[in-house]
């Protein structure tokens, strides 16, 4: 009977080396993640402005390409002229929106103190059905909250809006100034025309999906905000403009944004008209509006553009909300779309894309036509595909 063969010293040493290498890889990955997370938190002011600027740039870049190709008689709009007009429109739109937000914040803050006592009493009355002791305890707890400190903090945050808008405008302007050379830089960076076209196609897929998502969200949020504004106007309640604007902004946060907006609108109505019937009616009407637009119209317009996991969206909201606060929650879905598409085209990272996708079927890889000889890569034209990308 032969004795079992024992592993040689070389195989044992090789196994030990592999285990050490794997452990070092994990440790280096954890350290790299901690460093990146630290940088994200410390530089969030600049990074948030940069992320918003890139999104605004991608939203208008395709439109500028289309406008620059138009020809009216013998006159053709130059690319640089279309870029200047786009930057001017973006700057005016952002400054107008920032001015409106700051004005509404100042209006709410200036009148909140007069409603403080009514708000505290209204919140306590919501627990009256649990007994007088519970109502008194809730009233005492609410009165212990230092509302003045929160108002000062909110006023300070409002003051940073204008500076961040100016930074976003600067980033957008420089992106448009450099856009002509993006194709050339990408080709020189990859040192391979086929690979450069493939990377350009992946970036185009991300831009297309994010743009469609943002445009649909902007449309639905605008209609919802106008509906909430008209609802409060019908009941002759104050803060109609502020609540409409708040609803518009919060609707960009998936899942939880519409719920928070409905609860805030109901609370504001209940504070001004301390009648449960009126507050319940406003809650029902606002909730029906949110449900109809967010759960019926929104999916019809969105189609299969995102194909993201609902649980993954919640995780992304929690992570980016913890890192960047409310702006991070707005950017959570675009970031998730970018990660899913990029991972779907990297074989080693494809499991991540499968987990982030809704049906476990992320966007399939799409091969590109081989480049023709001496064919330069177009700077502002999309790459050629061997077949259509999977239906949105």
Describe the structure.
With 392 residues, the chain is an all-alpha fold. Among the domains are: 100 residues; 81 residues, no CATH class; 66 residues, no CATH class. It has a two-stranded antiparallel sheet with strand order 1-2. Strand 1 and strand 2 form a beta hairpin. The N and C termini lie far apart (66 Å).
Chain-wise SSE layout:
Blueprint: H1 9-42, H2 44-68, E1 71-72, E2 75-76, H3 79-125, H4 132-143, H5 147-178, H6 182-190, H7 193-234, H8 240-250, H9 256-272, H10 276-302, H11 310-324, H12 326-344, H13 350-356
Antiparallel strand pairs: 1-2
Helix fraction by DSSP (H/I, runs of at least 4) = over 70%
Measured between the Cα atoms of the first and last residue, the distance is 66 Å
Tally of individual helices: 13
- Largest pleated sheet: 2 strands, antiparallel
Q: What pattern of helices and strands is seen along the backbone? A: HHEEHHHHHHHHHHH
